[in-house]
Amino acid sequence: MVERQQVSEDAVMTRIGQAVMLLHAGDREEARNRFGALWAELGSDGDPLHRCTLAHYMADTQDDPGDELAWDLRALTAAEAVRHTDGPGTAGTPGAEGAAAEHRDLPAVRAFSPSLHLNLAADYLKLHRHDAARTHLRLARAAAAELTDDGHGGGVRAAIDRLELRLREQ
Predict the structure, then answer these.
(1) How far is CA 115 from CA 40, 72, 118, 161, in A?
(2) CA 91, CA 71: separation in Å to the nearest integer?
(3) Which of 22, 43, 65, 123 is deepest in the core (most CB within 10 A)?
(4) Which pLDDT score is estimated for 103?
(5) Does the CA dihedral 102-117-54-129 come out positive or negative?
(6) What is the pLDDT of residue 1?
(7) How far lies 133's CA from each of 56, 113, 129, in Å?
(8) What pTM, to 2 d.p., does this model score?
(9) Are 127 and 169 in contact (CB under 8 A)?
(10) Of 111, 112, 139, whose CA–CA distance to 124 is shortest?
């Protein structure tokens, strides 16, 4: 049963990845269609990491800044669901050391958090909501402190710096 669930979850991430490839290749409409169909399949009780990842990329397919913000907020809400959920099978019971087990997807969500907040900051800047943009930019910078000093971490930090400069110019 667990093996079947893992295969199923891998299939969902594969489908998300395929739609992301379409998005990055410039086919926003087809990516949006595939994300929309997958979102309907996942439903509101679907795996939080899947919903977070899907909503994060679905935001990038939106033409309207308000719609983009709505999808980025869905991504953040799903990430928060992972942060506030005990690990699989713990059902809130303490482990041997007295602490609940960490949710299996928490490391992925921690790595994703800087980008989630960065995107929200950019959304709010587009909507001329500068205070909200500053708040999420601060949260992005704080979350980025946990990123490694590889290409991804450096790229996220550079994007935070660029957005901070744009916000100062406003």
Answers:
(1) 24, 10, 5, 13
(2) 29
(3) 123
(4) 65
(5) positive
(6) 44
(7) 17, 15, 6
(8) 0.82
(9) no
(10) 139
pLDDT at 9: 57
Given this model, what pLDDT does residue 40 score?
A: 96
Alpha-carbon gap, residue 45 to 138, rounded angstroms:
30
Is 118 within 8 Å of 140 (Cβ atoms)? Answer: yes
Q: From CA 34, how far away is CA 79, in angstroms rounded? A: 21
Could you tell me the two tokens for 10? 């891998």
Handedness of CA 97, 98, 100, 102 (dihedral sign): negative
Alpha helices by DSSP H, listed for the chain, are 2-24, 28-42, 48-59, 65-83, 106-126, 130-144, 151-169
Contacts of 89 by beta carbon, 8 Å cutoff, 6+ apart: 101
Question: Helix crossing, 48-59 with 106-126: angle to 10°?
Answer: 30
